[in-house]
Design goal:
- The chain has one helix at about 55; strands at about 1-5, 15-20, 25-30, 40, 50, 55-60, 70-75, 85, 95-100, 105, 115, 130-135, 145-150, 160-165, 170, 180, 190-195, 205-210, 220-225.
- It is mostly beta strands.
């Protein structure tokens, strides 16, 4: 068992990095959003027992406030090795950051290959509280679908942004294709998830949740087939 110290919230998010070390055992990226290190990379294969995650981490990835609440391992640049994408919250605006592996020593925002920010939001959109990365359009590159379910324009409608293909540097999400919630308080993007290939075209689908709609206060989940977004 891996645990933190104080209120690190170790394990708030966990991602399977695969066999990074080449020893036949999967390794983990563990979010600790209230700790000094937002993400801890821990090699698999430890003997049963209790461990302080910081003591056994082979690498750390540090961001801004509460980085590590959402973490996904994916081969972002297509080199066959796992990379990491995580939510970063320099402010309530939120943000998403991508790092390329291998993960060695201490890494921070200066080591990121790409970041997605919302530069003009006036409220608290919570950009990146949910996201999904996969090849959603079937062109062989990793895409990123980012939810922002919070209040950015006064009506809590939420929004979802679509990054087609691999990005680098700082991306203003308002330069990307996006959709917004259809109703005040919809909180579109409160959940975003990759789905299996439902229609047999070899490309994954995506599900996006709206937390509220007038005819269904409990919310709706929308499923999109590849090619429909």
């Amino acid at each position: 068992m891996y645990e933190g110290e104080g209120v690190d919230f170790v394990g708030y998010a966990v991602a399977d990095l695969g066999d990074v070390g080449g020893d036949g055992i999967s390794d983990l990226a563990i979010g600790a959003p209230w700790g000094d290190d937002g993400i801890l990379v821990v090699d698999g294969g430890s003997a049963p027992g209790r461990y302080l995650a910081e003591d056994v981490a082979s690498a750390t990835v540090t961001g801004s406030y509460q980085m590590g609440r959402r973490v996904q391992a994916v081969d972002y640049d297509g080199d066959g090795a796992p990379d990491l994408i995580a939510q970063d919250r320099p402010t309530d605006t939120g943000g998403v950051v991508a790092w390329l592996g291998p993960f060695v020593g201490s890494m921070d925002l200066t080591d990121a290959t790409a970041s997605w920010e919302w530069t003009s939001a006036s409220g608290s959109p919570a950009l990146g509280s949910q996201f999904a990365a996969a090849d959603f359009d079937g062109n062989g590159e990793t895409d990123l679908i980012v939810g922002a379910p919070g209040n950015y324009d006064g009506d809590d409608s939420g929004a979802v942004f679509f990054q087609w293909g691999v990005a680098s540097g700082v991306v203003d999400v308002e330069s990307l294709p996006y959709v917004t919630g259809a109703f005040d308080g919809a909180s579109l993007g409160i959940a975003v998830a990759e789905l299996p290939d439902w229609n047999g075209d070899g490309i994954p689908e995506v599900a996006i949740e709206a937390g509220y709609e007038p005819d269904s206060p409990d919310g709706h989940i929308y499923g999109f087939f590849s090619g429909s977004y």
